[in-house]
Amino acid sequence: MHSVLVVTAVDAERDAVRGAVQGAVRSALPGAADGGPHVIAGGVGPAAAAASTATALARAGRPYDLVVSAGIGGGFRPDVPLVVAERIIAADLGAQTPDGFVPVTGLGFGTDVHVPRPELVRAVARTTGAVPGDVLTVSTVTGTAERAAELRARHPRAAAEAMEGFGVAEAAAAHGTPVLELRAVSNPVGPRDRAAWRIPEALTALGDAFRALVQTGVPPWAEDLSTAPSASPTPPARTTPSSSTPGPTDGSRTRPRSM
Ligand SMILES: O=C(O)c1cccc(C(=O)CC[C@H]2O[C@@H](n3cnc4c(=O)[nH]cnc43)[C@H](O)[C@@H]2O)c1
């Protein structure tokens, strides 16, 4: 039975997750022909991610209990190879002004942050060793030290950046489904050096994380969340002024079951 949807950007990420969870499900349930999460490659960027996630959620025979945006990403902290998002932030959704960047919420529209359920984030961190932190969604991969510094200044809790999390979270929120984002760091955020991206290592780390989630009985989904508060949790304290107004992403609809 599938109750978790995992959305990656590209086929290589999908295959890394799929291979890991299929092996784990088979060893947990010998003879099982089916089981574990559905894993799809939804395309690169927030728009493709939102469209593919929304389509998958709408077409599902029964509602998913959890959506996970997963893949490789750029890291803001050299000591952190795996990140689980405490907040999923649309870092370039807004307007440039002479006084600097104004997020979309500052313009009076929408939201620029989704806050996954803290108990799910903690459980994933416990199970996989992922470090909780903000994950920025960008439409343009950061490629200069200046841009990296600007993002760090605006988002001091940023641990990673990628290109899909916010799109996946918007689709999940529209369906009232809880969301998580898990990123294995393939490269530092900063001056572009594509040759230095450690993609195979990051894909292995991504697969290891999902294997751990499935093998350990996937603690976050096993918890009874039916009694969890339905309001969006309070985001972590900020150390600098920030735009981000949490969106309704706790997805209080249903209780996540096994992955
Ligand atoms: O070339 C390959 O073999 C290959 C295998 C797996 C993934 C890729 C990608 O290029 C994935 C693109 C995907 O990765 C995220 N990403 C990774 N690093 C960054 C970054 O520094 N800033 C933003 N996004 C990053 C992103 O989500 C892309 O969709 C290639």
TrEMBL record:
One of its GO terms (biological process) is nucleoside metabolic process. Its EC number is 3.2.2.26. The lineage of its organism: Bacteria, Bacillati, Actinomycetota, Actinomycetes, Kitasatosporales. Residues 221-259 are annotated as: Disordered. One of its GO terms (cellular component) is cytosol. One of its GO terms (molecular function) is methylthioadenosine nucleosidase activity. Keywords: Glycosidase, Hydrolase, Menaquinone biosynthesis. Signal peptide: none annotated. Residues 239-251 have a biased composition (Low complexity). Catalyzes the hydrolysis of futalosine (FL) to dehypoxanthine futalosine (DHFL) and hypoxanthine, a step in the biosynthesis of menaquinone (MK, vitamin K2). InterPro entries: FL_hydrolase_MqnB, Nucleoside_phosphorylase_d, Nucleoside_phosphorylase_sf. This is Futalosine hydrolase. It comes from Streptomyces boncukensis.
